[in-house]
Design goal:
- The protein has 91 residues and is mainly α.
- The chain has one domain.
- The protein is built from three helices and no strands.
- The protein has helices at 2-18, 23-59, 73-83.
- α1 packs antiparallel against α2 (23-59).
């Protein structure tokens, strides 16, 4: 991922400054870099939303069901979010 986000565009820019770069290489590298940065931003956005949902769930009293398996924890949070209704209120 780091190669597509940083190294590839830097190499392409260096070759562009030297004047020995192909147009298709510039287009390909630009598209790959854009997709990698977009995926990275989307991942961090979803991660932030999940953390906010988890915090809101714990502020409301925690999930109704429990699990010790980290693979199923997102489903526990999803179940708790579905069970919660209305705005966040302090009890």
């Amino acid at each position: 991922m780091f190669n597509e986000m940083v190294v590839g565009p830097l190499i392409t820019l260096f070759l562009l400054l030297l004047g020995s770069v192909d147009t298709f290489m510039v287009i390909s590298t630009s598209m790959n870099a854009y997709k990698a940065w977009h995926d990275w931003e989307e991942y961090h956005s979803l991660r932030s939303q999940f953390q906010m949902m988890t915090l809101r769930m714990f502020l409301k009293g925690g999930p109704q069901i429990r699990t010790n398996d980290p693979q199923y924890f997102p489903f526990v949070v999803a179940d708790a979010m579905v069970r919660m209704s209305g705005p966040l209120r302090r009890s």
